[in-house]
Structures are given as structure tokens and as C-alpha cells.
Automatic annotation (TrEMBL):
Domain Calcineurin-like phosphoesterase span(s) in chain numbering: 61-269
Protein name, entry field: Metallophosphoesterase
Pfam families listed in its UniProt record: Metallophos
Annotated organism of origin: Sphingobacterium kyonggiense
Length: 360
């Protein structure tokens, strides 16, 4: 007799969950702009775990295909990626557990994913610690240049303005700037810097942002390491490379003294299946008294940890409203959105995942 109330409770709970899930599926809406005159950029987090396992490659391909397919409806102007494009830069014998794709395959995988955007959207890719050395920044050497160049995407070549110092004096897009004129008429300068940039790179970057020609541009800085999960500037990391500047040093030497760096995007951090461990956001003033909004966004250990599916397909799209000040942030997964059975999972709506901030 005592089991009957429990059974009824379980049945009612199951019915409630089913109805709730069905309702959530019914109210799913495809990503769209809140104002038809807005424009957007897409931020892709560290893709290394998508490309290191053959089984996960389809997810990053789906993500870039989604970016391409929604470019018109979201009025997407360009795409940014936070780095760690591969898991191992120069490893030919993966053990099958940490990865089952060797470095050549990983670089080919990520090149193929972004190749889908060639001729449709420009994209700027940061280099992370895993894009250097043997496995992770044992030395400053990367195969990035063999797989990515401005010429491969004509839209990138058209936007390229300044090229900074790479190793051995080579000119590549590892340290570079790209200029975009958004629908409002405002000019945006996207500056990408290598993982833990050297002093010479920061000196070059400072000279560029101080040029009179860019005085009225809003500068977006894209680099791999900047904030930790407590939204503090990262002071030090345990990599073997020398002459390395991490978040705190980059802020003090470049961002704070500038008058037009207004946004900083980075990735790098993460905890297995804990999204909060992948995120950071803070605002500080620069030398002109303007607010610099700094966002760290990653997802690589979501979807099963470090050896899982690579990040559940999470990305962010940022809507810049016509007022020139308001930015709306949405966290979205094309992987969950593709099926009616999982569409209710396609958005993250926590206050640190869906929010607004202002550019003063």
C-alpha cells in the first residue's frame, strides 16, 4: 500500500518533465537579431578537441557551416577564433587516447573547417599554446603559416592592414591587423597577437594602435591567454617559452595605455564539464578613460571533459545594436539546435552566458 503514492509521484514527475521538455522545444527560436539594423560577429572558442579526434571533426565543420548559413540573417561581419587551433602542433604519433589524429591531420582538419567560409566571411584566428612547439609551447615554432594565409580567403586579404614581427622576421598573419567597416559606418580594427606575445610584438602593436590613421577606429584585441575563471588577468603560466607576456602584462603594456582598444577576446581556460571554468568577463578603463570590455570564452572541456566531444558545439554571437553602444551576447550550440529532440538545449541563458554590455 505504501508503494502506490510513490508510484504516482514518479509518474507525475515523469509527466511534468516530458511536458516541460516538449514546451521548451515548442518555444525554440532560431538565432536572430533583436534589431534588423544590427550587425554581429561570431566568436568560436578553442577548437583543438574537435580536430584531435576523428569522431569530433564533424562538429567543428557543422559550426563553421552554421556560421556561413546564418551570415545573412545575423548580418555577420567577421568571425574570430580564440586559438588552440590544434591539440598538438608537431606530433606525428598520437597515442589514441589524448588524440587519434596526428598534427598534420589536425591542421588539415581545422583548415578544412574554416575553408567553408572562404569567399563568404573573413575570419581572424589567434594562435594558442597548443599551436606551438611539439605538444604545447615547448618552443616558439608553429605550422600555422603552412595552413592559413590571407591569400586563402580573399576577404581576409582585402581586410589585412598591418603585419607584425613573427619569428625569424617572417611576415605572416600570426600578428596582424584587419580593418572592417561595419554597417553603421564605423571602422573596426581587429588586432590578433600570438600566444603570450613577446615584448617586440607588444611594442609593434602599441605603435600600430597609436597611428593617427587608426585614431577613430575601435580596436578589438584577439589573443589566446588573458583572463582566468575569476575574471582576473592571468599573471603567469608554466610554459617553457621565454619572453612571454600573459594577460596582466598585455593589459599593462598594451591595453591600458591605449586610447582605442575597446574589446579583448580570449580563450584558453577550462574545467571538465564546468562551463563557469571556461568563462571570464571584466571591464576596465584605458588611458582615454574609455571602458575596455574583456571577454574570455571557451568550451573545449564541455561534452565529456578533455577527451569528450570537443565542446558541445558551443559558440557565441555578439549583436551590435544601431545605437553604437549596446552589445548583446548569446551563447548557442548548432549541435543541439540541429534536432528538434535537443533544441531546448541550444541556448545557455545564465547571466554569465546571455547578457548585455555597453561601449561608451
Amino acid at each position: 500500500m505504501k508503494k502506490q503514492p510513490i508510484l504516482i509521484y514518479v509518474l507525475l514527475l515523469g509527466l511534468f518533465l516530458t511536458v516541460g521538455q516538449t514546451f521548451a522545444q515548442q518555444v525554440y527560436q532560431k538565432p536572430k537579431l533583436s534589431d534588423k539594423n544590427s550587425w554581429s560577429l561570431v566568436l568560436l572558442p578553442d577548437p583543438q578537441s574537435y580536430v584531435k579526434f576523428e569522431r569530433n571533426v564533424g562538429i567543428i565543420n557543422m559550426m563553421t557551416t552554421w556560421v556561413k548559413e546564418t551570415a545573412d540573417s545575423l548580418n555577420t561581419q567577421f568571425v574570430l577564433c580564440t586559438g588552440d587551433l590544434v591539440e598538438q602542433n608537431d606530433l606525428m604519433n598520437p597515442n589514441g587516447k589524448a588524440a587519434n589524429q596526428n598534427s598534420r591531420q589536425q591542421w588539415t582538419n581545422i583548415r578544412s573547417a574554416f575553408q567553408r567560409l572562404d569567399g563568404y566571411l573573413p575570419y581572424v584566428l589567434a594562435t594558442g599554446n597548443h599551436d606551438y612547439g611539439h605538444v604545447s609551447a615547448e618552443y616558439r615554432s608553429t605550422h600555422y603559416d603552412q595552413y592559413f594565409s590571407a591569400e586563402q580567403n580573399g576577404l581576409n586579404a582585402r581586410a589585412l592592414r598591418e603585419v607584425g614581427p613573427n619569428l625569424n622576421g617572417a611576415s605572416t598573419a600570426v600578428n596582424a591587423t584587419f580593418e572592417f567597416q561595419v554597417p553603421s559606418g564605423k571602422k573596426i580594427l581587429v588586432m590578433v597577437l600570438e600566444f603570450a606575445p613577446r615584448d617586440t610584438v607588444l611594442q609593434w602593436a602599441k605603435k600600430v594602435v597609436d597611428k593617427p590613421i587608426y585614431a577613430n577606429h575601435e580596436v578589438i584585441l584577439l589573443t589566446h591567454v588573458f583572463l582566468d575563471k575569476k575574471s582576473q588577468h592571468i599573471v603567469k603560466q608554466g610554459y617553457k617559452i621565454e619572453d612571454a607576456n600573459y594577460g596582466a602584462a598585455v593589459f599593462e603594456k598594451l591595453v591600458k595605455p591605449s586610447k582605442n582598444i575597446r574589446l579583448v577576446f580570449s580563450g584558453h581556460i577550462g574545467e571538465a564539464d564546468k562551463f563557469d571554468g571556461h568563462l571570464g568577463f571584466r571591464q576596465d578603463k584605458n588611458a582615454a578613460g574609455k571602458t575596455v570590455s574583456q571577454m574570455t570564452f571557451n568550451a573545449q572541456a564541455m561534452g565529456g571533459g578533455w577527451h569528450g566531444n570537443g565542446g558541445d558545439g558551443w559558440l557565441r554571437y555578439l549583436e551590435f545594436l544601431p545605437d553604437g553602444k549596446t552589445v548583446k551576447v548569446k551563447t548557442f550550440s548548432p549541435l543541439f539546435a540541429i534536432s528538434p529532440a535537443t533544441q531546448y538545449l541550444a541556448y545557455k541563458t545564465e547571466k554569465n552566458q546571455e547578457f548585455e554590455f555597453s561601449i561608451d
